[in-house]
Design goal:
The protein is an all-alpha fold and about 170 residues long. The protein contains five helices and no strands.
Length: about 170
C-alpha cells in the first residue's frame, strides 16, 4: 500500500498544481468591479491548494514508510491482479469522459452535451444484459430525468453563480 500511496501522491500533486495554474489563469472580472475573492478561479484554487497539501502529506508519509523503493532488489514483487470488472468500468468511464470532453464540448451546446453525457453514463452502468428493454424502461426514464435536471442545474450554477463562460 505504501508504494501505491507514493505513486498516488505524485499524481495528485501534479493534478493539484495544474488546478492551481488553471485557476490562476481564469478571468478575474476586474472590468465588472467584482470583489477579487468572488472571481471564478478562487474556489478551484482553494481546492487545488488543499489537495496539494494533502498530497504532500501522503507523499511524506509514504517516503517515511519506504514507498519510494518501487522496485526493491532481492525481494519478490507482490503483484496483485486487478479486478477485471473494475478495470473495465474505469476504462469505460475514461472513454466516455474523453468523448464528452474532446468530442462534445465546444461543438455541441454545453447543456445538451452534459445531458447526453449524464444520460449515457447512467445507461451504460445501469443497463442489465439479459433483461428485456421493457423491464428496463424505468431506468431509461430515470436517466432522462436525471440528465435534464443535472445539465440544467450544472449550467445555471456555473453561469449564474460562478459567472463562468461555458463553451
Amino acid at each position: 500500500m505504501v508504494k501505491k500511496d507514493f505513486i498516488t501522491s505524485i499524481v495528485l500533486m501534479a493534478f493539484s498544481i495544474s488546478v492551481l495554474v488553471m485557476s490562476y489563469t481564469m478571468p478575474r472580472l476586474e472590468r465588472r468591479g467584482i470583489d477579487p475573492f468572488s472571481a471564478p478561479g478562487v474556489v478551484p484554487g482553494m481546492i487545488g491548494a488543499i489537495l496539494l497539501c494533502l498530497a504532500l502529506i501522503l507523499f511524506v508519509r509514504s517516503i517515511r514508510r519506504g514507498g519510494y523503493r518501487l522496485f526493491s532488489s532481492g525481494k519478490s514483487v507482490d503483484v496483485q491482479t486487478p479486478n477485471t470488472g473494475a478495470v473495465s468500468r474505469v476504462s469505460l468511464t475514461l472513454l466516455i469522459s474523453f468523448l464528452y470532453a474532446i468530442g462534445f464540448l465546444g461543438r455541441v451546446n454545453y447543456s445538451v452535451a452534459t445531458a447526453i453525457y449524464i444520460f449515457g453514463f447512467i445507461c451504460l452502468f445501469e443497463y442489465r444484459p439479459g433483461v428485456s428493454m421493457t423491464d428496463q424502461k424505468k431506468m431509461f426514464i430515470h436517466a432522462i430525468v436525471q440528465a435534464i435536471i443535472g445539465a440544467v442545474s450544472i449550467t445555471l450554477v456555473f453561469q449564474k453563480l460562478f459567472l463562468v463562460d461555458l463553451p
